[in-house]
Specification:
The complex is a heterodimer.
Chain A (H helix, E strand, L loop, with lengths): L2 E12 L2 E12 L3 E5 L6 H8 L7 E6 L2 E2 L2 H4 L2 E4 L11 H12 L6 H7 L15 H13 L5 E5 L7 H16 L3 E6 L2 H7 L2 E6 L2 E7 H5 L2 E7 L3 H8 L7 E5 L2 E7 L5 H10 L6 E5 L3 H9 L1
Parallel strand pairs in A: 3-8, 3-9, 6-7, 7-8
Antiparallel strand pairs in A: 1-2, 1-4, 4-5, 9-10, 11-13, 11-14, 12-13
Chain B lengths: L1 H12 L3 H26 L3 H10 L7 H10 L4 H17 L1 H8 L3 H33 L11 H24 L2 H28 L12 H5 L5 H6 L9 H25 L3
Classes of the chains: A alpha/beta, B mainly alpha.
């Protein structure tokens, strides 16, 4: 797949603080690209540089192999950090300004307001909105003009559980329409549920980037259990190619090098040795485990 | 591009009450103060006799152009205040960021603010022109004339320079309260002190010297205070108008250039 955004060697200092340290990666077309990292890891700085509100000290980035110009930003929907609108104007009038700047999307205003459930409040002033409503208006502004690329920084910030689920569904829907979505978040659950690709950052450094399956699965984990756990443990230890066995919550976790776990062989081996398994499951390593492992 | 940028700024302004109220105040103040002055010189009493001896007939054509622009130039802090509020609002709401994110280039953002300044200068000029016209036509023995109408141009230039200074200050300070306070203290007090100090340091006389070229004072002196000149019995300490014009254009260019560079290079 061709890449939509290519980032190479981005570096940014805030005084003596090294906010971004030589970060490079590519965002493939049609992917949902999650940028993960704890608070202060440089996610927003990175997206700020791409959208020209922050100047990089070094490095470059391209959009469809061209330098990212103001005219190109008009084709991209962006929600960066906080919802920024004129407090004294209504939701609708604020979106009129966004549409005028983008030079498109004037007819879209009602549609996007309906998409984020703000249509009934379109004449209310922005200053009267709750945090969640402000966030939804910012998402509406990003959707104006039906852009093919979306950059969303913490899109579910300030939303209630229903709102979070709605936005997650919206992102899945947009991805199924073939749009490329770049999303920064510190909510692992959120990224794990919708992203196809992920980059993990810490203190301005890129720790890893790639397809979710590649980043997460560097080993196979098979969970097994049986009535007699002690006997099961002695038996599984005689399995070939097994790296490690761990006890966890009344289960045993068997660790294999990636792609080598064979469920049938494990089942047969246990059965032949006189043990019937009550559970046998191949598990992916959760993003949370991976994240904590990488960032600690 | 100009039409598009003006349209964007118009969308920001047309429903902003504060803007319209301050604009109304500008009209009220320009008309009101000129009216008080007009009543003072045209009423037939002893006090007005003395005033007329000193001032002549300030509201007759062609003097009225000078008089009204001179009085109105004390009100320049009002449109400047509008510029400070509009610019620092963008920082408060972080919409200066959002505008750029949405696809305005940084240069376009500054151009759109300069366009607002140009529009406000034209509006101020129009207010002053109409005020002068009405008072000129209401004066006795006054027949319409465009002689001395160059003061209208000087006034326009002064508006543009004051507001560009206000823009630069707002971009540098970002916070409305601080920018407003510094702007007022500077134009009302600090500049007068500096002008006097420079004059004294160079010529030994606070009323004479290159101090008049200092920042906004150059544009101020394009429309000199007539009564003050008369009281000095014709002795004119002010630099030639052409010099003041050149100085004003240089400062105007400088304010706009610095504003542009500041917004183009800073982290927003």
């Amino acid at each position: 797949m061709p890449s939509i955004v290519t980032i190479s060697g981005l570096t940014k200092f805030y005084g003596t603080i090294h906010a971004l340290d030589n970060v490079s990666f590519e965002v493939p077309q049609g992917s949902v690209f999650g940028i993960l990292g704890p608070n202060g890891s440089g996610k927003t700085t990175l997206l700020g540089i791409i959208t020209d509100v922050v100047k990089a000290n070094a490095g470059s980035f391209t959009f469809l192999d061209l330098p990212f110009s103001a005219d190109m930003r008009k084709q991209v929907g962006v929600l960066l950090e906080t919802p920024n609108f004129y407090h004294y104007l209504s939701a609708e009038r604020n979106l009129q300004i966004t549409a005028a700047i983008k030079g498109r999307g004037e007819n879209d205003i009602d549609t996007v307001l309906k998409k984020v459930n703000l249509y009934e409040r379109k004449s209310s002033k922005f200053s009267t909105f709750s945090l969640g409503m402000k966030q939804r208006l910012a998402i509406a502004a990003a959707l104006l003009g039906n852009p093919n690329v979306l950059i969303l920084d913490e899109p579910t910030n300030g939303l209630d559980p229903v709102g979070i689920a709605e936005i997650r569904n919206l992102i899945t829907l947009l991805a199924s329409e073939g749009k490329t979505i770049i999303m920064a978040s510190h909510l692992l659950d959120e990224v794990e549920k919708v992203c196809t690709h992920v980059a993990i950052m810490k203190k301005g450094k890129l720790l890893t980037a790639g397809h979710v399956d590649e980043v997460l699965a560097n080993e196979d984990i098979v969970e097994v259990s049986a009535a007699d756990l002690a006997q099961l443990e002695t038996i599984v230890n005689t399995l070939p190619e097994l790296k490690q066995v761990k006890r966890q919550n009344g289960n045993l976790q068997l660790f294999y090098p990636i792609g080598t776990a064979n469920m049938e062989n494990i089942n047969r081996h246990c059965f032949n040795n006189g043990i019937t398994l009550s559970q046998l499951q191949l598990k992916k390593k959760s993003l949370e485990t991976k994240f904590i492992e990488l960032t600690n | 591009m100009i039409i598009r940028l003006l349209k964007i700024e118009w969308l920001k302004l047309k429903n902003y009450k504060t803007f319209w109220i301050i604009l109304a105040l500008l009209v009220a103040c320009v008309v009101g103060i000129n009216y008080v002055y007009f009543e003072l010189v045209s009423s037939k009493n002893q006090a007005s006799g003395v005033v007329n001896m000193v001032l002549g007939t300030p509201f007759q054509f062609p003097d009225v152009w000078h008089t009204v622009t001179q009085v109105a130039s004390y009100m320049l802090f009002i449109p400047s205040l509008i510029v400070v509020i509009l610019t620092t609002n963008e920082y408060n709401f972080k919409t200066h960021r959002q505008n750029v994110i949405d696809g305005l280039s940084r240069t376009e953002f500054i151009i759109s603010k300069v366009l607002v300044i140009a529009a406000l200068s034209i509006v101020s000029l129009l207010i002053v022109f109409l005020t002068a016209l009405v008072f000129g036509l209401s004066s006795e023995f006054s027949y319409f004339s465009l002689a001395n109408a160059e003061y209208l141009f000087y006034f326009f230039l002064q508006c543009f320079t004051y507001m560009s200074f206000a823009l630069l200050l707002s971009l540098l300070l970002k916070r409305s309260g601080l920018a407003i306070a510094l702007f007022f203290v500077y134009i009302c007090i600090v500049e007068n002190i500096l002008v006097a100090l420079i004059n004294r340091a160079v010529s030994g006389n606070v009323l004479e010297g290159p101090g008049y070229y200092f920042l906004l004072d150059a544009s101020d002196k394009l429309i000199p205070v007539k009564s003050l000149q008369k009281m000095m019995q014709g002795k004119n300490f002010l630099p030639p108008t052409i010099n003041l014009l050149v100085a004003t254009f240089v400062y105007l260019g400088l304010f706009l250039f610095l504003s542009k560079r500041k917004f183009e290079t800073a982290d927003l």
